[in-house]
Amino acid sequence: TPLKVMMSVLYPIAQGFNAVTNLIMKIFPFKREKIFDSEEELKMLAELGEEEGTLQEEESDMIQSIFDFKDKTVGGIITPRVDIVSLKANESIDTAMDIIGERQFSKIPIYKDTIDNIKGILYAKDIIPYLMGSRPNVNLQTLAREPFFVPETKPIDDLMEEFKFRKTSIAIVVDEWGGTEGLVTLEDVVEEVIGEIRDPYDKEESDVLTQSDGSFIVEGSTTIYDLEEETDIKFPEERDYDTLAGFILDILTDIPQAGEQVEYNNMVFTVQTVENNRIGKVRIEKGNEPEEQSTDSR
């Protein structure tokens, strides 16, 4: 049943909480009547444990992410609209099967006219009965299930409760005008806590590629958080964007052309590719150190 599927997906989160609790109790043997005075105290202990080697970096990060979880909103973990794989309501079942087979998605949004008018969510298993014999001319919207819409400002922990209540694992995220901002899945929520879900045989690839000259090649969709984690680059603390592309657009206030540059904190960001108004690859390198002005008097 869908509930059993959800429970199996949520099981790693529950295990993560238990593992973190047991780990901390093992490392810091507190008395039962007094554990921690505050969340901040526990975060500091996690950082200390990592510095002293009693906690692995991944374990420390998990503790941090669990406490940061309630402060995050859906907008920070969505698949943006430009990356949504969707189908028009009048597409054929054959087309739907081709997309499902190619992209390996079990649920696909169905829209009418534009992606801002999503009418339902097509589950791959719901079209299986129509694959026997001759393919009937069925409107995909009639096979789709009712979509679940949430605002981008919705807290992630509230979304979890909604997923559980509605017995679903996918939601369409809308902006303040009701347009489609993106989509979010239960897998996105799980990854936010325990890290990206990968096949155990996949090779881990970094979003930040270090070049031999010390520069970096980065996708515009890379988050500022990941960039700061993997490099020494510091971005503005007060910001209204989440990605490197957002940072560049915020400074330029216009869509860049390939080759355009942005300078910030003695770092040069060169836009290498732009496709359909979307920033692709960006090269990041140190700028020239400002020359010291001569103090000689003549």
What is the compact description of this entry?
Helix content is 35%, strand content 18%.
Structure description:
With 298 residues, the protein is of the alpha+beta class. It folds into 3 domains: 2-71, no CATH class; 76-192, CBS-domain (Roll); 208-286, Uridine Diphospho-n-acetylenolpyruvylglucosamine Reductase, domain 3. It has 9 helices and 14 strands. It has helices at 2-27, 39-52, 57-68, 93-103, 140-143, 156-166, 186-194, 224-230, 244-252, and strands at residues 79-80, 87-88, 107-111, 118-123, 149-151, 170-174, 180-185, 208-210, 216-219, 261-264, 267-271, 274-275, 278-279, 281-286. The strands form 4 sheets. Strands 8-9-14-11-10 form a 5-stranded antiparallel sheet, with helices on one face. Strands 1-7-6-5 form a 4-stranded mixed sheet. Strand 2 (87-88), helix 4 (93-103) and strand 3 form a beta-alpha-beta unit. Residues 1-7, 27-37, 197-203 and 293-298 have low confidence and may be disordered.
